[in-house]
């Protein structure tokens, strides 16, 4: 198995999956902005997902299996207690909008890199007559 760090196309695909998961979690936060007691969530950092993808392969059924998924959603408790609404909701729409915009920009970059690498691979094969 080639690690995503060694294969730019796989790395871009892993990043796109992580960004898709993050966008879903952020959309859920916005949808629950008025839900009493809702705690805003975010996915684990991309570095964690990348490290998990480079874990050793299971070659024996007795080996332990990893439990982390790409972009696993976790509650975020980084907001100060005075920023939490009286109903216990911790969603800040301004903060969520900034995170959504950052995620959208990162998605566009990863998608562009993926397309360029695919184009490079195709041009390499076509120049060889394959």
Strand content: under 5%
Number of helices: 3
Task: Give, in order, the helices and strands.
Answer: HEHEH
Q: How much is the average pLDDT?
A: 81
N/C terminus separation: 24 Å
Helix content: 40-55%
Number of strands: 2
The rounded Rg comes to: 19 Å
Uncertain segments are: none
Task: Choose one word for the global shape.
Answer: flat
Sheet with the most strands: spatial strand order: 1-2
How would you describe what is shown here?
The chain is mainly α and 130 residues long. 52% of the residues lie in helices and 5% in strands. The protein has helices spanning 8-31, 46-53, 93-127, and strands at residues 41-43, 73-75. It has a two-stranded antiparallel sheet. The longest helix has 35 residues, at 93-127. The chain is flat and about 65 Å long. The mean pLDDT is 81.
Can you give me a brief rundown of this structure?
By secondary structure, this protein is mainly alpha-helical. Helix content is 52%, strand content 5%.
Q: Would you spell out the secondary-structure blueprint of this structure?
A:
Blueprint: H1 8-31, E1 41-43, H2 46-53, E2 73-75, H3 93-127
Antiparallel strand pairs: 1-2
Helix pairs in contact: 1-3
């Amino acid at each position: 198995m080639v690690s995503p760090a060694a294969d730019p196309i796989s790395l871009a695909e892993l990043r796109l999956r992580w960004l898709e998961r993050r966008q879903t979690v952020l959309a859920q936060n916005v949808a629950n902005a008025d839900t009493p007691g809702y705690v805003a969530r975010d996915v684990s950092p991309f570095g964690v997902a990348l490290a998990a993808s480079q874990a050793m392969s299971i070659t024996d059924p007795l080996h332990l299996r990893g439990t982390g998924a790409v972009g696993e959603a976790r509650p975020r408790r980084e907001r100060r207690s005075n920023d939490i609404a009286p109903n216990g909701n911790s969603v800040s729409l301004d903060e969520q909008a900034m995170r959504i915009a950052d995620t959208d920009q990162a998605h566009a970059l990863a998608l562009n890199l993926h397309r360029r690498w695919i184009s490079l691979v195709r041009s390499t094969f076509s120049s060889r007559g394959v």
